[in-house]
Protein 1
Amino acid sequence: MRSSIHLGFIALCLASLCRAQESTGTTAAAASVQVVAVRARALIDGTSPQPLPNQEILIRGDRIAAVYPSGSRPLPAGARLLDLGTATVLPGLIDCHTHIFLQGEVPAAGGYDVQLLKYPASYRAARAVVATRRALEQGFTTIRDVETEGAGYGDVGIKQAINDGSIPGPRMFVATRAISTTGGYPLEGYAPEIVVPKGAQLIDGPVEARKAAREQLDHGADWIKVYMTHRSWVDEHGELVSQPTLTVEELKAIVDEAHGWRRKVACHAYNGIGLQRALDGGCDSIEHGLEITDAQIAQMVRQGTWYVPTLAVYYYDWDPADTPTGMRDRKRTAVHGVSFRKALHAGVKIAFGTDVGGFPWSIPSPRNSRAWWSSG
Ligand SMILES: [Zn+2]
């Protein structure tokens, strides 16, 4: 990826140039119509079957005005030529499943829990700012960030800072706190007498579910994120089992509320009862979807449910094969690939998502990612 330059990143740089020019006294009219021709050895335009060689992209303001073979047109008067040499240019990438606030340490440094127990919100926000810049630099011009892992509405503020030009970053769709049930999300494993923070907003019953959705929408959620499964393990028959969380009635209250606001609901669901409830409750997207039955795939096609499989993160950092978690790690990838192929062939709508965000996209899955921590 090092030799690739992304149009979105270039566009952002140009926007910054515009702002700089405005602040130095150039007339607003001149600053608003900057014209730049970007020249590159190859262009992946997203529709042609092959990369196009030696192309020039003419950008007026923040819009691509034309694309043509290099040198086939004269440079417009006043235009600046940005020659990228041997670089390949491609459209900005979209990651539909990120967590810019999921930046836990390796277990020796405190793991997932240390983020919620010991890190000041300002520290987590500062690292999220670094994550958004890195997203852009690694080619992602849009991310759907599906919850802040106990950092409250921090994503709303980061998005605001990007949108007003305070910090660099991709276009963000944010989910804020996410929703699960009692017993359905960490922090876990502490003495019952001790109240610990949770990485999601926990609800019990349709009334609390709807209230949580209203709160999150009120505070700026573009999507509602719901955890429909939590712990998972391999049972005595060698099958993957996932603990379900919300009931259909609880989920329906959330979906009904979100749809009323013209917002959508993303459901983390591995398999089994929880995944079925996600579909019956009207989720707009299934996140992960490790094991999806033929009937569930047919239901997704029928209902127009999106599938965001986040395939890559489950292939790394496996525990030893003879341990319960090691068995689970292997089983997850075994069933995931099968489900993905079935969904692809059945025509399920599939979106690209990684579960990356808080760590670089060049790292497959450090031990701080969603795929790692115990509930998986
Ligand atoms: Zn995730």
Protein 2
Amino acid sequence: MLDALPISIYVVDRELRVVGWNRLREEGPFGKPRDKVLGRNLKRTLPPAGFRDTALLLEKVFRTGKLHREVRETQPGKRLYEIARYPVMEEGRVTHVLCSFEDITQKRALELQLIASDRLAFLGQLVAGVAHEVSNPLAGIAGCAEALASIGLTAESEDARAQAREFRDLIRSEIARSERLVRTLLDAARPHPGSTADLRTHVNTALRLLERHPAFARVEVVSRIPETLPAALIEPDSLKQVVLALATNAARAMAGGGKLTLRAGRVSGNVFLDVIDTGPGIPEGLRTRIFEPFFSTDPANGTGLGLAIARSLVRGRGGDLIYRNRNRAGAAFRVLLVPVQGAV
Ligand SMILES: Nc1ncnc2c1ncn2[C@@H]1O[C@H](COP(=O)(O)OP(=O)(O)OP(=O)(O)O)[C@@H](O)[C@H]1O
Ligand SMILES: [Mg+2]
């Protein structure tokens, strides 16, 4: 049975005698023929340094009865292996430990490629959108400048001078709009690799900022984030940006008043943050479109970048942002993040 498995495996008893050694364990840079190892002590089959590490880990699995799993990088060809040591129990006692080695080099490379291509597709959409978005204010600015030139800044009549001031203000506000747009995009593109954030601290800071905002005057905000959550793999600023994007959307959807709930916890190896409102929710046909850059149902007030950037920020750190179907009314978004320690 062990021979049929696509991963390399050996089994040792409590004296660290090798009692199982599958076909794949005979191949590769660390492989040895089965008849040279079966019945012998592990010490004689592994290189000395490798044996010392392994013996300590095996001793722990025999003592605690708990599975031990790790990812290791090996020197030859820099390959990545996932190594697991499973306790084999008999009558409540660990009698053997089964060690498996899976070469996950290719799997990891594919995962990284997927993240990269996702970001590229996002950037492509973004560039097209930016060209479109920036050309609007530019056209406005050009038109106003033409009009100004024909009126003249030192026109005789008060009427003409008032008109000139109006065009000048329009130019200023269109320039400010372009600047805001460009700044949002640059912030989203700036990488801050490796930093981590404590969910409770940073979500609560973001909420304190929002509570004073007039859009939240009629919104009751409830935050339930346990103290015991592990830190998550994301930059504190990005996390704040994600929370702000989700919370301002919710407030906009509940202009007449409502309740915004934030709660967090752990789910299958991830940390999650749910942002739930009591607004009208999102029609089924729009649930994927809302994540496209520049998709907005309220273009007068929004650029449609909020969710697209938020999703790209968390995906860039191995997480995700999804819309959750719920039976109750209102919208519910879930942010999934990679915990920094204690991941299973
Ligand atoms: N909580 C929500 N309730 C109802 N509709 C929502 C909610 N969140 C997002 N939406 C819908 O998704 C669309 C896209 O959201 P997104 O945040 O990307 O852009 P926006 O809010 O319109 O603009 P921006 O965030 O750039 O100011 C919104 O226009 C809105 O129609
Ligand atoms: Mg938004």
